[in-house]
Design brief:
Elements lengths: L1 H32 L9 H6 L4 H5 L10 H22 L1 H30 L7 H21 L3 H15 L7 H32 L2 H16 L14 E2 L6 E7 L4 H16 L4 E7 L18 H12 L4 H10 L5 H14 L4 H8 L2 H16 L7 E4 L2 E2 L5 H16 L8
Parallel strand pairs: 2-3
Antiparallel strand pairs: 1-3, 2-4, 4-5
Helix pairs in contact: 1-4, 1-6, 4-5, 4-8, 5-6, 5-8, 9-16, 11-12, 11-13, 11-14, 11-15
């Protein structure tokens, strides 16, 4: 019994150490998010001579909106809750709590082994405090095993009983399961509360200054690209002048939700920078029916939608048709042609001419030509936005505005503010 108690105390000591490390790493992450990293002490640098800043700024290991330090805090706090409540209440609840702690710590140890492998292989930066936390996780797995080993036989019996219940061999005795259910649910709720609290804190600290610094980095990354030759024609769907200093080409698919969002973003940019911007629309349907550059028929009605938009363009109604098409539902291929005809009628097209143009070889050739250009540019998905020959990754309103104004300034030698 004393050995079991000693194991429990050791587990709590390890959890406390993990909580301290996770809390420090999270506080450092908060300082980065608030653009106040200069005010925070770099404990890793002062103690170990290796800064943890690179690891904390790297978002590779962020999952579901939380950085590693936050997940560490959720993990250790939940584990502490399980151990303390199990110890305080004892009895059947205590037994279930010890097994729950073992399962959770085994999961944490497994995650640590995966991350450790990534660090050793050079795929992730090394942080001394994170390394200590990973060692703690391995020790916790062993410690909780020792703490729970007294009920391991009971665990096997419960697992066997659970399997018999699932397959209908025997009925479930609710009296035997009540403590396990209460323990697991209360632990889960505690972890969710900690998770939600940290998410709220992170969202508050995603300051304007930090967002601005990220936009600045993305602009520099965009500027460093070598421009591609993205051919356009005067008879393509276009907003703005072909001589504008900012030339945007967007490859799009009318069944792509992200394309609809980017479409609204680009149209707003065209309104804000009316004389300085040109937007050309090119087709890249994610369907093998008209696009040899894709390998699966992701959007079954995308080719028909592209043909229909091109037919509308021949009647000078491309943009009204374009906007209505993005608002329509083309998920059911059986209803797609009816929907396209309804939209065509709604924007005032000559339906007989529309249907003829939609099925004409010239229209289908134009769509395929756009897809070929996209393939030569190594476009793999939609939307793909090129501004003056350079693709924009991670397109956001702030990034688009910054790049547009940078290009206008470069072409004219003066700063141009958006029309807001």
């Amino acid at each position: 019994m004393n050995g079991n108690r000693a194991s429990g105390l050791l587990c709590l000591g390890l959890v406390s150490a993990g909580l301290c490390i996770a809390s420090y790493l999270l506080s450092r992450t908060f300082s980065f998010l608030s653009n106040q990293e200069g005010d925070a002490i770099d404990l890793c640098l002062n103690v170990f001579g290796i800064s943890c800043s690179e690891t904390l700024e790297d978002r590779t290991f962020w999952r579901f909106g939380l950085p590693p330090g936050a997940w560490g805090l959720v993990y250790y706090a939940t584990l502490a809750y399980i151990l303390v409540t199990g110890w305080a209440l004892g009895g059947e609840f205590g037994k279930c709590a010890s097994v729950s702690a073992l399962i959770l710590s085994a999961f944490g140890a497994g995650i640590s082994l995966i991350i450790g492998g990534l660090i050793l292989s050079g795929h992730a930066p090394f942080c001394p405090l994170c390394g200590i936390a990973h060692v703690i996780n391995q020790a916790l797995c062993f410690c909780t095993w020792r703490y729970a080993r007294g009920v391991s036989r009971q665990l096997l019996e419960d697992t066997n009983t659970g399997g018999r219940v699932v397959f209908g061999v025997t009925a479930l005795d609710l009296r035997d399961s009540r403590w396990l259910s209460i323990g697991l649910l209360s632990s889960l709720m505690f972890g969710i509360i900690i998770y939600q609290s940290i998410v709220i804190q992170i969202s508050r600290r995603e300051s304007t200054a930090y967002q601005a610094s990220r936009i600045s980095d993305d602009v520099e990354e965009w500027i460093a690209q070598k421009p591609e030759n993205v051919p356009t024609r005067l008879d393509e769907p276009r907003i703005g002048s072909p001589a504008a200093p900012v030339q945007i080409v967007v490859f799009s698919d009318f069944q792509c939700p992200g394309c609809a969002d980017v479409s609204m973003l680009l149209e707003q940019a065209a309104a804000n920078y009316s004389t300085a911007i040109s937007i050309v629309f090119k087709h890249f349907p994610l369907s093998t029916k008209c696009n040899d550059g894709v390998h699966s028929d992701m959007h079954e009605s995308a080719c028909d939608a592209a043909y229909a938009a091109q037919a509308a363009h021949l009647q000078n109604k491309f943009w009204p048709f374009h906007d209505a098409l993005f608002e329509a539902n083309l998920e059911d291929p059986a209803d797609a042609l009816f929907t396209l005809r309804r939209i065509a009628s709604g924007v005032g097209l000559d339906i007989r001419r529309f249907e003829a143009d939609m099925s004409s070889p010239e229209t289908k050739l134009r769509v395929r030509q756009d897809a070929v250009i996209a393939a030569e540019l190594r476009v793999r998905g939609t939307p793909a936005v090129y501004l003056n020959g350079k693709v924009i990754h991670r397109l956001t309103p702030g990034l688009l505005q910054a790049i547009i104004e940078s290009e206008i300034q470069r072409s004219s030698g003066r700063t141009v503010m958006g029309g807001r």
